[in-house]
Each structure stands twice: as structure tokens, then as C-alpha cells.
Amino acid sequence: MKEDIQKLLFQEIKASNLKGVTRASQIEVFEPKTLEFGDWTSNICMKLAAKSDDNPREIAERLIENLTKEDWITKIEIAGAGFLNFYLSSEQKFNFIEQCLEQKEPLLIQGKVKQRILIEYVSSNPTGPIHIGHGRGAALGSALSNLLSRAGSEVKQEYYVNDQGLQIETLGLSLLLNYLSLDGERIKLPKECYQGDYLKTLASDLKKNEKNKYKFALPEKLPTNFDDWLVLVKKELSDFKELGKFALTKILDGIMTDLKEFNTFHDDFFFESSLFKDSKKSEFHKTLDYLSKKGLSYDKDGAIWYRSTDFGDEKDRVLIRENEAPTYFASDLVYHKNKFDRKFDEMINLWGSDHHGYLPRINASLKGLGYESKKLKTIFIQFVSLIRGKNKVSMSTRSGEFVSLKKLIDEVGVDAVRYFFLERRSDQTLEFDIELAKKKNKDNPVYYIQYANARICSLMKELQERGFNYSHKEGSKALSSLSSAKENELVSQINSYQLTLERCFDKREIHSLCFYLRDLAAIFHSFYNSHPIIDKDDGSRNARIALSLATQAVIKDGLSILGIGAPEKM
RNA sequence: CUCCCGGUAGCUCAGCUGGAUAGAGCAUCUGCCUUCUAAGCAGAGGGUCGCAGGUUCGAAUCCUGCCCGGGAGGCCA
Q1: Coil, strand or helix at A564
Q2: Rounded CA gap, A299 and A277, in Å?
């Protein structure tokens, strides 16, 4: 529709020899904020006026002279400083509603190029359960994936697992110390160790499975710091590595379970360790050799450095440490190379905003390897803070007091958690009010939206009980009798669903969809209260039922993108 | 010190590729259930869009400076 208006305007602009526009798509046509200004509006006359010294309203008059002949346009108004307001015929207005009524499949976003898209998200370290910060990423990543596939794109959802290096040793040691403590040894965990209670549970599991396999004679004087513990443990236990693996497997299992419960479904878990397979011939080593051959890396102070400064980073970065261990950055560089080699049209990373300083070096590494870093889009996710009524709930990962996603879901439910995570722009900090999320009334937007759907379900039941028949054919026929302000408002809100999805798609964001659904629900509730829907008059009844069903189709469709349920009864 | 994000109603936030009177929810106040779910609706009050300049027909939106809040600047991940 928008495109049709752009095309018409463009024709007229060319015919009148006006300068300033070379393509139809440059002409701004948008939905005005109130219905007073028509169904569509354009500011093009003001833009043209700026380049031609002519008065915008005069230009407007010249332009619309021929346009009114179009039969799908009922009226064009010149308003304000020179806006063109278009009013459409009712057939045009009900097009989308009829489509909603017949739709069985999810609605598709039209006019977008099909792409292969990789989206990597959550990717939390497998050293502990997912906490609410990761949950926000999970909600956004999964919803975004749903949205992107609506445009026909093939979306691959990936979780990158850092299953290597010091943190896994740390995990193993943390587990072991908890395990040894089970027999009454009083061991104080060094501060570098993971402190959460989940390790106590894991330690008991380990004990059950393996009995005393990992017990050994402790020296009289226990080590006091992390490094000494590690040295001791490695000396005493030949299979110390198994402990890290055990913990990692168990924890990752838990993460997967939590994610599934949270309606988040990754296609693939990509293990960092896979980059190191085949030792010297691994993807990791090949890539590092390549960098070295190309002169992109160099030795200094016993370490190997990447020349990221050459590609816009502030300073060069270490790839291989003095102790020969690769840095996190080195692995990540190879991982991103791997992503590019898989030939996606677009790659999206969802990162915690505390990683924003990390982006320049990843971009630098990709440029160095000769990849188009434009294909990589990084979306940053700000922190979540929890409040309960007016009190802040304290959260700190280090001390193990973090609030796990699972706990939050158990308390307020998946739907509410997802909604609250998605309703805010991802790059803004989020204040999550637990009490509000638990409410089951209109204060809580997720219930408010779901309630609109439940109401419509209940309407349909009531319709049957009163012995009325309804068919889409009759409903569609009756639509043109809709004329009240509330009805028009609802029609117009339903119609802007497509545009809402397109905008979300283009901007790779979700929160506008939440706001849209909330508005739609509000307009529906208002409509419901001002008109009898199951009316005695066949025409009004059929039309209003059709309108309600179209509303329902959109609500269900929108909620399914958000990964939120639509209960029929509440 | 440098960089990033933010500052919009009492609170939580939309709007930011410049456009018509700056929006929503909560909170406050006032109404509405013999009628399809009151788990709802209708209405009212509430604003120097952080401050100061600039750009232009037009600025919450773009530019510059400043103030305030948060984050980032590892051979951590």
C-alpha cells in the first residue's frame, strides 16, 4: 500500500518536472499518529518546496490533481504546513483483515530478501547456571530468530561454549574442593573459585557416582591460595581433568534444560575445543600460522601479538600468552573466522554490553583476515536489575548470589519473564519488577494482552451457545458496515501490524512489537466495552466477530514471535 | 584521562533515518457490573524532552560544549 502511494507520487513528481527525488522509495509515506490525518500521509511537498522556492501547498495542489482519479483512494487532503493525507477506500482497508481471517500459517513479512542468518546468543560460560542477564539475551535471541524467519530467512541459532582453558580448571578445582568438604574437611575456597551452591549439589552427585575416587591425602598445611591448590591437585590426581569435564557436562545439561523451558531453542552448540581438534593441524593453529605468514602477528615479550592497531583498534592484542596458552580473544578470532567461512549473509552477535570494548578488536581481526565486517552485527544487551516492590534485589555473580533464570521463571512464569525482558530496548538497562510481573490483572501487560485473546475465545463460545452461525465469508461481506470510531481505530491498528513487523525486522529489534500488542489489546478491550459484539443484527454481528477474529489472529501471531503463550481461558 | 550508553510526567519507559497539539503504563482523583470474562472500560490532573548554543520553513530527534548517572578500557572471560 505504502509502495503504491510512493509510486503514484513519484509519477506525478516526474510529470511536473519537480527536482529532488530520483526514486519512488525516497518519498516518505507513513502512517500518521492519529486517524484525523488519514490512513497514510506524506511530507514530500515540504521537502520539494525546500529545493524549489515554491510554496508547499501549491506544489501539493499540482500533485494531487490527477491522483484523486485512483479508485482505491477516496480522498486526498492538503493539511498543516503541506502534508498530503490519503484516505483509502474500504476495500483497501479490509484487505489485510480478510487475509488474517483466512490465515492458518504464521503471517509473513513481505518484500524482504531471503537470507541465511547466523545468530549467536546466550553463550554463557558453562561454569554455572544461567542467570537473569543471560535470560534477557535468550529471550531476545529467540524472539529475534522467530522474527527473522518470518521474512523467509533461514536462521541458525548458535550457542558458543567456552569449554577450554583456565576457567574449566577453575571449575574442576571448585568442584573438587566442595567434594572434599563433604567429608568434613574445612576447606576455604580461594576467591578465584566459583562460589555458588550448585557446586555443592554437583559435588554430592559426584560422590554418589564415584564414591571416593577423587579423595587423596591432604597435607597437614592446606594451600591458602588458588595457584598452590592447583599445583597440589594436579600432582595428586592424574585424572583431575575429568572433574572439569564432569562439572561442565552437568552444568551445560542444566543450561540446555533451562533454555528449553524458556522457549529458547538453539540449533547448535559450538564448542571452543572443536577449534583445537587435530592439535597442530587444527583450525586454530592453521589460522594463527596464516596470520603469522601474512605478517599480521609478531612476537614480543615472549607472547604472540595481533596487529589490531592496523585495523582501527586502540592497541595490539595478545593471541598466545607467555605461558603458551591462547587468549580468549585468539579463540574468538578463529571462531568468527569459522562463522564467515560458513558463508552466511549476515551474522548477529548478542553480547552483554560490558563487552562493547571488545568489538573493535573482533572487527579488526576480521578486517585483517579480509572479511567484510559489515556482515557481522553486534547487538548489545544491558543489565537487568531486579526489584521487588520498591526494594532492589541484590545480585552479584562473583559471590554466587546471582539470581538464576530458573528461580525467576519458577516464581513469575515463562510468559511474564519473556515479555518483561522483551518490552524494553535491549541496549537500555532494565528494571524488572517481580511483583508487577506476578500480577494477574491489567497492570501487567502480558496478562492484559493474553486476556484480549481469552476474551475473544470466550466470545466465540458464547456465540455458539446462543445458537448463532458465523462464517468468514459472511464476516468478510459484512466488514464494510464497520464505521464507528472504535471500530475504525481497531481496523487501523490491525492494519499497521505488517508495518510494525517490517520495522522490527529492519531494525533487528523486538520491543516495538510488545508495545504494538499492548496497544492492540487496549483498543480491542475498548471496542469490546463500547459495542455489543454478539448483536442481534446479522450484519453488525458478523462484522464485529470478523474484526475480533482478525484481532485474535494478530495477537496470537505476535505472541508466537515473542515466544509467549496465548491461553484460551484465563 | 579516553571511549560507549543513557538523562522525556511523581515512577517505569516509548518516540530519536528532523514534521502536524510530546505518547503509554503505573501512581493520584472521579465515574461505570440486572447486558458477550469488571482479570475490564470511560474521564481528569500531571512536561523548562538534563543545561546552553548552533543548523532550518520546522529540533525531544541532527551538530558543538558543559553537567549528572551507568558501563568499558587485562598476557580475565
Answers
A1: coil
A2: 24
**A317 CA – B8 C1', rounded, Å:** 41
CB A426 within 8 A of CB A380: yes
Alpha carbons A364 and A380: distance in angstroms, whole number: 18
Residue A456 CA to nucleotide B42 C1', Å?
A: 21
Q: Is the CB of A522 under 7 A from strand B?
A: yes
DSSP count for chain A of H helices, then E strands: 21, 15
Among residues A427, A350, A413, which one has the least CA distance to residue A383? Answer: A427
For residues A524-540, one letter each, b for 16 or more C-beta atoms within 10 angstroms of the residue's C-beta and e for the rest, the string is beebbeebebbeeeeeb
- Cα gap A489→A67, rounded to integer Å: 26
CB proximity list for A375: less than 8 A, separation 6 or greater: A340, A344, A345, A346, A347
DSSP character string of A87-124:
EE-HHHHHHHHHHHHH--SPPPPPS----EEEEE----
pLDDT digits (tens, 9 = 90+) for A302-342: 999 999 999 988 899 999 999 999 999 999 999 999 999 99
| Protein-to-nucleotide distance from the CA of A554 to the C1' of B35, whole angstroms | 28
Q: Is the CB of A249 under 7 A from strand B?
A: no
pLDDT in tens, A249-267: 999 999 999 999 999 999 9
Distance separating alpha carbons of residues A328 and A105, to the nearest angstrom? 43
Strand B proximal to A459 Cβ, under 7 A = yes
Strand B contacts (CB < 7 A) among A residues 300-319?
A: 300-303, 314-315, 317-318
- Scanning every strand, the nucleotide with its C1' closest to A83's CA turns out to be B20
Cβ of A468 less than 7 A from strand B = no
Of the pLDDT bands very low, low, confident and very high (cuts 50, 70, 90), residue A395 is: low
Asked if residues A232 and A104 have their Cβ atoms less than 8 Å apart, the reply is no
The span from the CA of A236 to the CA of A137, in Å, is 41
Alpha helices for A342-433 (secondary structure H) = 359-368, 405-412, 414-422
Whole-number Å distance, CA A329 to C1' B71?
A: 20
Q: Is A502 exposed, middle or buried (0-12, 13-18, 19+ CB in 10 A)?
A: middle
Q: What is the pTM of this model?
A: 0.94
Q: Which of A142, A128, A136, A146 is nearest to A417 (CA)?
A: A136
Beta bridge pairs of residue A2:
none
Q: Where are the beta strands (DSSP E) in A51-188?
A: 73-79, 83-88, 116-120, 154-161
Å separating the CA of residue A125 from the C1' of nucleotide B15: 37
Q: Assess whether A165 (CB) lies less than 7 A from strand B.
A: yes
Strands A116-120 and A154-161: parallel
Distance A352 CA to B65 C1' (A): 31
pLDDT band at A280 (very low <50, low <70, confident <90, very high): confident
